Amino acid sequence: MRIYQHVVILAALLLICATSVAAPDDKRQVQLEHLLAQDCGACHGLRMTGGLGPELTRAALAGKPQDSLIATVTLGRPGTPMPGWGPLLSPDDIQWLVDLLLKGYPAP
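-> structure tokens emitted (108 positions)
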């Protein structure tokens, strides 16, 4: 796929995420926290301090554009073990997870 096509897809996904974000209900939030701890934690460390994948602590993510983080979770990182979660998670789920990481997960 050409870089132009990637840019168009990314822009469309970001527009969708920016316009239709609603916080998941309490039950879904529990499921997403479990996914974050187990699935994301398998590569990024159970405390998000890094491992196979980079550190995802509040300090490590400080200054990173939220849209870029959403795109990474949605599309993954080609050439790395980071998969795209867009086929499995809704834009609202991804937004909520990114917000949780930016606030600091897990809580100290």
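The chain has five helices and no strands.
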